[in-house]
Amino acid sequence: MWTVIYIASTAKMAEKLQSRLTEEGFLVKLRPVNMSKQQFEILVPSGELDEIQEVLNSILHP
């Protein structure tokens, strides 16, 4: 099952986060939320949620 871990405000940010998390070895999907505002959900497997949250925090808050 896939879980939303973050909502990115731009496609560029969503792609950057997807790339960084994929480099760390995680499966990541992007899904548009609101095309008029260009928001994208970042989805990850729910079984890896805790691990991915730690990595995501280190990416967002270096």
UniProtKB/TrEMBL annotation:
Superkingdom assignment: Bacteria
Name under which the protein is recorded: Glutamate decarboxylase
Species assigned in the record: Saccharibacillus alkalitolerans
Lineage per the UniProt record: Bacteria, Bacillati, Bacillota, Bacilli, Bacillales
